[in-house]
Amino acid sequence: MAVNTKVYIENWMRGKGKKKINIKEKMALTWIYLVAVLTILALLSIVGYVLLNGVKHINLDFFMQEPKSMGRKGGIFSIIVGTIYLTLVSIAIATPIGVASAIYLTEYAKENKLVKVIRFGTETLAGIPSIIFGLFGFVFFVIFLKLRWSILSGGLTLALMILPTLIRATEEAIKTVPQSYREGSFALGATKWQTIVKVVLPSSTSGILTGLILGIGRAVGETAAVMLTAGSSLGVPKSIFDPARTMSVHLYLLASEGLSKEKTFATASVLIIFVLCINFIANMIANKYIKNTKAIS
Amino acid sequence: MKKYEKIIEAFLLICATVATLSVFLITFFIFKEGLPILKEYGIIHFVFGKTWSPTNGSYGAFPMIMGSISVTLGALIIGVPMGISCAVFLAEIAPKSIVKIFKPAIELLAGIPSVVYGFFGLAILVPLIRMHILPIIQKFNGEAYTSGYSILAGAMILAVMILPTIVNISENAIRSVPIEYKQGSLALGATQFETIIKVILPAAKSGIITSVVLGMGRAVGETMAVILVTGNMPKVPGSVLDSVSTLTGTIAMEMGYATPTHQKALFATGVILFVFIMLLNVSATWTMKRLGGE
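The joint structure predicted for all components is written out below.
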């Protein structure tokens, strides 16, 4: 009997059931197929359209030259420098805090009120829209702390934005480290902190790395918050107290002011290619990591 | 040795509170900047005032509230049926090999910066609406006019942007429906489609609703894509072809050159947005828990 059910279900899954499929059924299923295809087409058309129009304008000069006449001519050198600078600053601030939070939440926290508040706060932070982060960064970092429009203000704001992603990714990674590792380390006489630094963290590096890469992706793609906190000046920034323009902000200003079609497409393509790489690397690390944990258990 | 460990634990705890503290700081500063003008102007006056004209000192946020609501509703009308259909497709219909291509593609869709979506909308959708959709509408209504920068353009772009949220969460919800439900329905002679509509979707209700609410939050909070395609006219819209400005768009556009009072008014706009998003997020968590988040 059980076998029959299984066979029936399997046949049904393959659409080879004995039942006649009526027209309504067929139409409904066709609709679902259509929508799915449409979704993929939407994705392909967005990525494809931008790349088709943009890639031909990307060359070495585009990367190495300074933008001229507001971005109408020249390249995006200072913008790349600004983007890298800002991303590094935000990662440098967010990583230690994020990893430490995750360690506390997974290794130390007991389920009390404080921890509940911390979890709720972290979740809430993830749900705040970027323009609110921008407003906050503007009034707090730029004006209240007198950091002005600078890479530091922008970096601090971005750090807050990527913090929830980092915490979550690190927590997930730490949770997959088998309990026996910790027990082994304790048995050898290591303290809790030694165990965490020498055993737990090394076995969860790839998970932390994935979170970090996703954070970089978010930092590079962010526009609204960065515009309000790091400014949009075109010069090459010399220190973290200088304002800077990132790639997304540059793309926005080019597009909204209609300065140059080809530069706009080229900048958008660089952004998309960057995001593709980020996704690819994150997936690669995640896959490797899944394989590793499977090998362990 | 014990002491040293204790210090580390305290340090880690401090780090763990950073996220929560910043939520408090953000709330505090946004309200501190925005509340005075809400009080001075009167909340009702600010929320329902129909003219937003900073140069004349009149701050009525109603046009922007309507703008945000209309663009979001439009995005939900287009995006929700698409998203749920996709989720059903992935969880119930598609063979594994297709799912393997489909899922990373959707993830990628989520990773593309919003300004790129906005640029695509500006380059493709806006002209499309002006040149191809407008003539069709004019056949029915001769007076219709649009520059292409419209609620429709914003809704279409936002619909694509909220798809990943809706598809991912709904798909998980559908996958977690116990197989016995499906078997029972099929054993009673229901077809595949009947099973999906009458058994699986109702059973996955809480997850699907959560996904829609979260998608809504994303649509309301989205800035850069909307700013590039909706035209930014602070005027209560009359049709889907009208230009609108949204709460987010107004803040981003005007912050750069605002006078002090104008800035405060923008913060007040931020307060409205903030409260709205928080309500959405809380209700999403609540539905998840309440409607049986098994």
